[in-house]
Amino acid sequence: MKFQSTYALVMKDVRSELRTRYALNALLMFVVTSVTTVLFALRSDNPSAQLLAGMFWVVVFFTAMSGLSRIFVSEEERGTTLTLRLLTIPSVVFVGKLVVNCLLTLTLTAAVSVLYVWAFPGFAIVSWDVFIATVFLGSLGFASASTILAAIIAKANVRGSLYPVLAFPVLVPLLMTVMNATARALEGETIALAFGDLQVLVGYLLVMTAGSFLLFDYVWVE
Amino acid sequence: MMTLAVQAKNLQKDFNRRTIFKGISFELGEQRSLVVTGKNGSGKSTLVKIVAGLLSATKGSVEYRTGNTNVSIDDIRDRIGFVSPYLNLYDEFDAVENIKVLSSIRSSSVPTDSAIQTMLERVGIAARARNLVRTYSSGMKQRLKYAVAAIHKPDLLILDEPTANLDEEGAAVVRSFVREQEERGILVVATNDPAEIRWGKIIVRL
Q: Residues B104, B47, A89, CA angle at the centre, nearest 5°?
């Protein structure tokens, strides 16, 4: 691993993103519109913790699907994929893109969390430690799965529709676990009771990242 | 630094069931230049991409050696420069940013500001160094590609359609890079221009 090159790639993507707002605008607009829609849909009800936790991650899932593929699609559209392939080794590209997607996903889940706490009185987080651990591990798991899928679909012609279709079965175990753990945080369960869910999230993150790292060479090199 | 050598052995490339070329072999060491020529669709760009490690050959192999040691393409990426119409730069950055960003991704050594300024003056775009690349003409982008490809003094310089989009002044800059590379290392050119074909000590006709 070349840490200097990886750092340079991350900084390139961050600076590029701040300048072009390719993914950031799409993510934040989607967050605002989807949270508003959910707010109007549930305003007269008193939704359960399970339902609110589910809606929280539905918003995160569809928002992530609208923006995270940009990390590779934008390189493909600008014709810079070959340039990156010439300059550095695949592992540098994978780790660099993964770090950027992690930063984007953490920003996204932080924004959704703030909006949910503000908009839904029922979304009262009792166990903050469980919630933060769930959101952190869930975001990293999302980013890891999204990164390799983005690399795969960047070469396809029908990228927009292919991404959520491919992502859904891969993300189902993660979604089920984070919904469950988030509901536990809302119901005030201790971290000891949520430990099983957090173990699943750590396991998912490790398996997905290791598998993606090994697979990426074949996706990246033509 | 150890001298770089490149050896292609019996290269063949198929796209689906169509064979583009086969049986291509050559050996390149210091001060050796290769020109690949042939009609449109004969596989010139494909062959230089294989030499640069951007594509894999269907059959045969390209081996890279530094001194007497075989190395992989990943070990020598920071010793390659490549200019072609299909290798794009980042439109949202200016010329200086492109050179710095791409150099730091390529290797840990980032060129100094004065080295960048000298290179931009050499390729004739110093006056527009701080303008975003999206405002450049295609010829200016081509000149910037030369700056990015040559700033680290590569041992292997690959040029695909070297003077595409360039005016006479730009073509003269390219010839100066070619002369410099012929003395320093290996030059690989894909072209159909009769004047550029004469740059090669080894000529592969596809």
A: 25
Which residues from chain A sit within 8 angstroms of residue B56, using beta carbons? Answer: 221-222
Distance CA A147, CA A152 (A): 9
pLDDT score at A155:
82
> Measured between beta carbons, which residues in chain B are less than 8 angstroms from residue A89?
74, 77
Closest-CA distance of chain A to residue B146, Å: 13
Cβ contact (<8 Å) for B52 and A86? Answer: yes
Q: Which stretches in chain A have pLDDT values below 50?
A: none
Domains of chain B: 4-205 (3.40.50.300)
* Secondary structure of residue B144 in the 3-state scheme: helix
- Taking 70 as the pLDDT cut, the residues of chain B under it are 1, 108
ipTM of the complex: 0.92
Burial category of A179 from C-beta neighbours within 10 Å (exposed 0-12, middle 13-18, buried 19 and up): buried
Cα separation of A131 and B128, whole Å? 51
- Under 8 Å between Cβ of B35 and B195: no
Two tokens at A27?
């993510």
Which residue, among A86, A79, A77, A92, has the nearest Cα to A6 in the 3D structure? A92
The Cα of A67 is separated from the nearest Cα of chain B by a number of Å equal to 19
Residue extents of the structural domains in chain A = 2-221
Structure tokens at A38: 């959910």
The secondary structure of chain A, three-state, reads CCHHHHHHHHHHHHHHHHHHCCCHHHHHHHHHHHHHHHHHHHCCCCCCHHHHHHHHHHHHHHHHHHHCCHHHHHHHHHCCHHHHHHHCCHHHHHHHHHHHHHHHHHHHHHHHHHHHHHHCCCCCCCCHHHHHHHHHHHHHHHHHHHHHHHHHHCCCCCHHHHHHHHHHHHHHHHHHHHHHHHHHHHHCCCCCCCHHHHHHHHHHHHHHHHHHHHHHHHHHCC
Q: What is the pLDDT of residue A91?
A: 93
**CB neighbour list of residue B41: distance below 8 Å, 6 or more residues apart:** none
CA dist., res. A205 & res. B2, Å (int): 42
Give the Cα separation of A197 and B61 in Å (integer): 49
This prediction has a pTM of: 0.91
